[in-house]
Amino acid sequence: MCSRSSLEQEFFKKWVPGLQICSSLAKDMSFLERRKAIKLSADVAMATARDGKTCWSRALIANASKQEDKKIIVRTILGSEFERLTKSSIGSVVCEKRVRSKKILRKSCTTIRRVRKIRKSAPNRVLASSIAKRLVKKRTQVMKGLVPGGESMDEFSLLEETLDYIVSLRAQVDVMRRLANTLVLSIP
Amino acid sequence: MERIPGSGVRSGNCRDNKQEISVEIFQIGEEIRRLMTENLLQEAPRPETGSSFTALLGLPENQAMELLNSPESYDSPAILTADIWRERGKDQKTLSYPFNCSPTFPSNAALVERAARFSIFAAAQNSPQTSSVPSNSSENSLKLKNETTDSESNPTILNKNQISLKRKERQKKGLAKKSKNMGDESSKLPYVHVRARRGHATDSHSLAERARREKINARMKLLQELVPGCSKISGTALVLDEIINHVQSLQREVEFLSMRLAAVNSRIDFNLDSLLAAESGSLTDGNFPGMVMPSMWPDVPVNGTRRQQHHNQHQQLWHVDVGRDNHNFISQPNSLFSYDSTN
């Protein structure tokens, strides 16, 4: 798919300066820290390649820029767009809190309702469907934990974000794998 | 219930509600009537329902049959309907075919309804804003076509009651939802124009619920296609399981690869990435040639004349490529020593 290779190229272009920063900082870092820095730079580059259109990318950038020590990496990668993207991500964080409080309210209501429902639902058909619903709900919870920024999404947007996230992850893995292979090969 | 003479009234209703589209509809209707009277004498009536129906859609036969037989495929109809309505603007001649097959009309109605439903849901799935108008006009013109054929083809009195009933129900719900749809065209939310099916609940809550469910199902289909091995699985929970596994495995790979890169990084400096950047820009298929990599180290004894040539080529690329940190590279002979020292 041509869009996929263009995504990969864009990701790579954004990632290279991040890697350079990592390598320049590499002298004082331990191995684990270095790995985390590389992973972070890759993730932020991926999110930047999406240019703030998707929710997960904004959430990722927001999380990354919260921690002070990693901020410099984010800043270099984002470059000029740093201000714009972090501002929008801060807004999404605020929305998250609001959504979270709403969710707590909703959860309390549904638990009350559920208790009432269980007593009523004797027929097996209803029971089966409620079991199925519970399974699906559990899995959506897990997915919300996986996708960055997934907590503040409803089901439908969660599915959309997952779609986009999977595509970007694949591109990221591709580029990283190729880079790692060529680097390994180049060592005589 | 009022029958076919009410067709004029019904289209009048359309006009009262929606000015722009109804004008269009009326024009199309006039065209249709004219073409029909023209071609009624010329064309031989086609016996099969399939061919007449396909002509109605303006599709080639096999694609339309596919549409009919696979109600679950949302992807292709989206593209097809978009194309149909683009073509429709160009030539009206395709409308002329089906109206001669009066004996096949009753089955046509059912098929038309199904196809209209496909176009709705397909439109809802992809770019609902842009295709909401075509889907609207498609339903309207389809409805109008039914009406006009009904009015013209008087001999087909079989099942006309059924059809008119269906159409009344359809239109009632359709009009109710249409106003919402038209109003929200500019909004970002994809409003799905849903029709109440026969025998299903028709209050707005269940309609909205059903629309929401259809949206979610469409997305699940896309996800199923994306994740390998998911298309055979049925059931939401299992599909979600697969998706979760896939995402987790991808994230683990990212971690693993970053660990590899960190390990490699300890031995090679990343200034050579500038070269890769230059190369990847030219490479569409990005399998980085191994020969690119080591060629630009002037200090390290490089084996092979081929690499020397590349080295000369790429030196210019260096200075051109990275805009920002050029001075880093010029001072890079110092940092290249990391390769030597850690070897």
TrEMBL record, chain A:
GO terms for biological process: regulation of DNA-templated transcription. The keyword Transcription applies. Keywords: Transcription, Transcription regulation. Residues 5-67 form the IBH1-like N-terminal domain. InterPro entries: IBH1-like, IBH1_N. PANTHER family: TRANSCRIPTION FACTOR IBH1-LIKE 1. This is IBH1-like N-terminal domain-containing protein. It comes from Tetracentron sinense (Spur-leaf). The lineage of its organism: Eukaryota, Viridiplantae, Streptophyta, Embryophyta, Tracheophyta.
TrEMBL record, chain B:
It is found in: Nucleus. SUPFAM superfamilies: HLH, helix-loop-helix DNA-binding domain. Residues 240-267 form a coiled coil. Residues 165-180 have a biased composition (Basic residues). The keyword Oxidoreductase does not apply. This is BHLH domain-containing protein. It holds the Pfam family HLH. It comes from Tetracentron sinense (Spur-leaf). Residues 151-164 have a biased composition (Polar residues). GO terms for cellular component: nucleus. Residues 200-250 form the BHLH domain. GO terms for molecular function: DNA-binding transcription factor activity; protein dimerization activity. Residues 125-141 have a biased composition (Low complexity). Gene3D superfamilies: Helix-loop-helix DNA-binding domain (4.10.280.10). Residues 125-190 are annotated as: Disordered.
